[in-house]
Amino acid sequence: KVSERIWGKYSSRIRFYSGNTLSMHCFAAHHMGLSLPGAQKNITWEVQRYDGWYNNLQHHSRGSVGSRLLRLLPANYADGVYQALQEPHVPNARQLSNAVARGPSGLPSKRNTTVLAVFFGFHVLSDILGTEKPGCPAEFLNIHIPEGDSVFDPAGTGDIVLPFQRIHWAMETGQSPNSPREQTNEVTGWLDGSSIYGPSHSWSDALRNFSNGQLASGPGGQIPRETDGKVPMWKALDPSTGQGGSHGIYDLGNAWGNENRFLQAVSIAWFRYHNYLAVELAKDHPSWSDEDIFQHTRKRVIATFQRIVLYEWLPALLGTPVQTYTGYQQHLDPSPSPEFVAAARIFLASMVPPGVYRRDSSCHLQNVSSSSDPFPAVRLCNSYWSRESTGMQQEDVDDLLLGMSSQIAEQEDNIVVEDLQDYWYGPLKYSRTDYVASWLQRSRDLGLPTYNQARERFGLEPLQDWTNLAPHSQQKVLEVAALYANNTDRLELLPGGMLEGDSLLFSAIILDQFVRLRDGDRFWFENTKNGLFTAEEVKEIHNTTFRDVLAAVTYSQWAELQSNVFVWSTGDPCPQPQQLTTQFLANCTPMTVLDYFEGSGAGFGIIIVVLCCLPLVSLFVAWIIAVLRERDFKKLQKKKASVRREVTGEAVHGEVAFLILCWCLVMLLKSGHITK
């Protein structure tokens, strides 16, 4: 009864955060000061859930797995409901990609942003965005390749179509103009380390070894385990070799963490950092349980991640500082917007280099071996879903992390390297596809607003004259203008934002998103009212940089890294020998068309023969059944006739006997032997 009274008093204020149900009696015992066996006495704060639920106590599902994206502007669909804009209302995606993004590689970042900042950025996006899940039922916005395309249709057949599937949406939307289609986010919409620990409690459990609070590792302890299927890691084919399977695919918090070796290296760095802090905590607190160590470590890793993203990485990426934190804003919706989904991806893609240097702590570059000559860097286009990382060693990851920290990224402009534009890994039938064209189609799938509508939303002047769009690249502007019939109001968000010389629109969209993520997060590390950290601990977290993280988890010493590993400045250690261009690198493996019949001819042949024979077999069986039934019917008819004759004979005999009996009685009456 005491438990019930306490539960009734406080149940409306209870929120479950660890993914484990807190029973009524455990709750009552906690408030009565009772000690329960197995209770975690060293976890004194509200543990944040893995799936994003109950971060906001008024809107419980906000930012949770499966929640909707937040539109900043009305949806721009052809029918106002769900149908994506297509030709001829908008240009062909591949043609527009060539007009906007085609150009030479080798132009360095204007702000000397490093390649590490670029792939760290993709890791950050994986923490707050999961928009890759295809919709069901399947809908396609296939990309028609112009005839004679030098990469995808060199033979000039004119019949090449790259498949492109629309992503998952909330099924209750897209029914009317008042409720247009809204897409969903398959990971949490918070900066909560879901890219490290996974977006669910079960995912996190599958990553743990439940010993000393650590994440499970493979041989050597510095690399995660190769996946065994318990964690739903994506395992696409390597477009360079055609290899598939689980080899070289590691269990990470991000399902797409093995997409390329550079994103994989950043993910492994955070995996190591968790285990590094767990070891330190275990030394300082030998009496703590595995759960105590794990939750304390997770809390500190998430806080460090938040600090690095907002106050180190974001200013380096945008070239502008982030305003000071003023406290938690409960009524602010921090959900990711579809405008951010597309703008952030394309902005980072423009900075991706064609290859990545590998170096050791002594600034010696590591050549990449090949079947012919060695090359100075790892080629991006030949690193998608690579299975060559099977048996990867600590040095392999360290060399990539150090190389990326010293290498300057591509310029923040409209040009995208061919490794993405022509040789991005392809879906279904084709091993390659166009990254830019795919995201142009994705923007139409998302129903993004036009370029001018987005500029007005962020307080920027709308474009009136095409010559004001990109004074540095007038020829490209003229090509794009022709594709939009010289109408600036028809210009779409992505091509317009890419052509801007100062990237004002993309920067505004990205900054708005991360500020909302910070200010609307109840578990933000600077919010001292949530009970996570003291003011002194917050100060310690503010003093932790990604340089400190790398120094802790690689063989490099602290002094061998520049103070800000997201920017390289003159005088920093280990300068790159030159800005990488494609001419110094291995050639990209060309596109192949997957033949699903190859190696299965006999099996498919047998199936086809069986299918062709099935109607004949069915007719034969039906004929046999009909013959048997006809024979049975005839037998039945004969049997009925025989029975009828027997019945008729018996009836006749009965009538005769009756007549004879009646005659005998009459005769007896007449003779007087029987009286009435």
TrEMBL record:
UniProt KW keywords: Membrane, Transmembrane, Transmembrane helix
PROSITE patterns: PEROXIDASE_3 (PS50292)
Domain of life: Eukaryota
One Pfam family it belongs to: An_peroxidase
Gene Ontology molecular-function annotations: heme binding; peroxidase activity
GO BP terms, alphabetized: response to oxidative stress
Stretches that traverse the bilayer: 602-628, 649-669
Name under which the protein is recorded: Uncharacterized protein
Organism, as annotated: Callipepla squamata (Scaled quail)
Organism phylogeny: Eukaryota, Metazoa, Chordata, Craniata, Vertebrata
